[in-house]
Task: structure prediction
Amino acid sequence: MWKQRWLLALPLALAVTIGTASAASIHDRAGLFGADAVRDAEAKLTQIEQDTGVSTTIETIDSLQGQPLDSVARQHAERSGAKGIFILIPKREHKIEVLAARPYQKAVPRDRRLAIQNAFVKEFAAGNFDAGLIEGVQTIGRELEAAKAELGGHLRQAEGAPVAPIRGRAGMPARGGNGFGLGSLLGIGLVILAVLIGIRLLGSLFGGGRGYAGQPGPGMGRPKKVFKDIDLWQRDARRDMTDLPKIVNQLPKLEDVVIDGRSVLSVYPSGDIRRKGEVTVNQEDTLEPLMLTAERIALEHRLDLMNQRANLYDTWRQIRVTANALRGVFNVTMTNQFLTPPTTTNPFAFLEQAKQFSLVINAELPLVRLLERNNFRQALINFQRQRRTLMNQEDFAKFQVRQDIRNMHNFYLTYEIARRNLVLTIRQKDQAFEQIIAPPTGTANTQGAVQTTNLVNFQQRLVGLENQLVTAWQQYQIWRLSLYRDLGIMPYDEWEAFHELFPAIPVDRNIAAANGGHEGPSRSATAAPAQVVR
Result:
């Protein structure tokens, strides 16, 4: 009896422990804040958690020890078990990192995290850390209340679903036991977690699932179903030719890329390149502005180019340093000593005859500084070399983004042409099959053999077109990701996992606006990435 009661009490104790670990707290390890400010801020955070259900953890550290800020923030967030908002403030580097756990990414997007960060930084810059802490906490409350009003009171994504754990940390059981023992509760939770992880991995490998945060993934799971539906449609004796375009249209659309409000595929008039049976590309005048925009974004966001610019600045500073060494030297040293005779005890009995006077002049003209002049000339050469290296890398980055965009256009057209050829080949195969089973005529013997050969050829061509569709989709995705990489704007979430955050409907509106009011070629284009607020 006592053992059963113990087992019933353990889940409750575990739930209390979990609740305490994820409660709002402030860990001032760097000693930035006063005790009164920490106490008032924790009371306010506790009230915010009770009102909104979102816990906030604020932690200060002395230094990053040379490590990246986002990496250290993720490690501390995982270590603290934060399930809501986590804020890391390194004292020595004068930086701040605001993270939001995955269930609250929709409620606390990048603009809200940036507002919270600015609230802290505004007072920190003036040296008033206690006021910055209070202002930041109040801003957290205001932003969460605004998000709660926007989302109808539900700040968590997918209400009722298991909380997505922080990467590298095992999921915890839900609060409030229901009579099961601790072993049963943990076993059920681990089984559910393993099943969900397995489904997500399989979906990401074969494209049949959904992306992170419940958003549609760009996988190639649908073509297999479409090809199977086409085969079933061909076997149906009562097939209707008008159903064929509907089946083929279920093939996945190619995702667009929006660069500073410009759609990469905006040179095409609509989501389908067919217009009155012809391929029409009537917006090529927008191609060059798109290329120039892509070049500008790459030059602004590429970290390797930023490093090269920093190296160029360093070589320019070396010129200033070596130029200072070319200045001439002219030193004048004069000494005059008055002495007292050793026979007297008067310390002020100076004698006119007992004095020593010296004048030393040391001069060195710039013309004789051969080593310094050589160093200055070498600094000028290094500056020109680094400038040409930067120009070369910038030109190569421009070439890369232009090549990526052109390859995206190429494989987009290849994909659309292969889709049209797929419909044409299916119709030709269907026509050959209908002629084979048609009533015999006077030339039935000859036509039968010819139509049989055509049927086999069309079937082989159909299989080839299906492979071509998959290959074109794959190559398009490769160049699409290459464009993200070369632009320096690869979408990733708080934990540096690549995914596309927003659903298709808001994205379509953005694409329509980028295309001048009409829908672009892609129906599921990529939205802006949720990057770490810095």
